[in-house]
């Protein structure tokens, strides 16, 4: 079987990493992978270990020329099936290209934001099957009119190996200039509005009142960076909040956190939540999208309502004040990731859908 994967993202964020995991797993199962991605995309270098990489201009929704470029790639390389992994124009233009070339096409949907029923009716005709990375996203599509037999859930996975080691928390704190017993909360997400950084900043005064030495490390980059820096300064939080940027060595740092927070407005599943669980870090997240599938309330973390600043502060205070509960939740998260979110399970799920589509 030959599969053409289309990933339009330029950075190696969570979604692109999932594409790498899938291609690696498929290659191990004898599948021939092709990857179409933007010129100079970060995924290209790593993907070459288990895929032939086709770099090309990808200008997003405003680039209908993607249809012709992708159609030509399909006709040249003759894949058995096309798998579109992202939006940014890749969904519509990639779906049209596959249709014009007469090749079956599946779409991975990673976000839970709603779409109009008329848009769902038109857009999803392009795809032979839709794969959602969480049951929460699947339910959104069903509610918008997509036929149940056309959509399946195959959850995202995480490679736990980089997180399965002993973390020297005291050395990590010393490197940052903190005392050995400094409590540290982290947030790992793109710096965009829907991730909910504003809720974390709003909750901090109530948390600092009980934990005045708390340090908050915000990992990620994005268009809100300048706005977040200004908000930290304006709210008098500069002594307690650091923007860490994009950390290439995140696995070496994540397990040193006492707590991960993710108060997003919406989230398909949340790869950073799975990574935190692999590193035995308890989590506070919102009841939205697929997050309740990655965080079981009271087991590997706590869930709050979207936008509930007081609830976020209370949850942070509760876990920061209870070392035993944090350890129990961290251990439970590790167990859950190892069993329910494995790369093998994800790869087998995607491969089964390819085979189903091709059989039809």
From TrEMBL:
<dbReference type="Pfam" id="PF13439">
    <property type="entry name" value="Glyco_transf_4"/>
</dbReference>
<feature type="domain" description="Glycosyl transferase family 1">
    <location>
        <begin position="169"/>
        <end position="333"/>
    </location>
</feature>
<keyword id="KW-0808">Transferase</keyword>
<dbReference type="InterPro" id="IPR001296">
    <property type="entry name" value="Glyco_trans_1"/>
</dbReference>
<dbReference type="Pfam" id="PF00534">
    <property type="entry name" value="Glycos_transf_1"/>
</dbReference>
<protein>
    <submittedName>
        <fullName>Glycosyltransferase family 4 protein</fullName>
    </submittedName>
</protein>
<dbReference type="GO" id="GO:0016757">
    <property type="term" value="F:glycosyltransferase activity"/>
</dbReference>
<feature type="domain" description="Glycosyltransferase subfamily 4-like N-terminal">
    <location>
        <begin position="14"/>
        <end position="160"/>
    </location>
</feature>
<dbReference type="InterPro" id="IPR028098">
    <property type="entry name" value="Glyco_trans_4-like_N"/>
</dbReference>
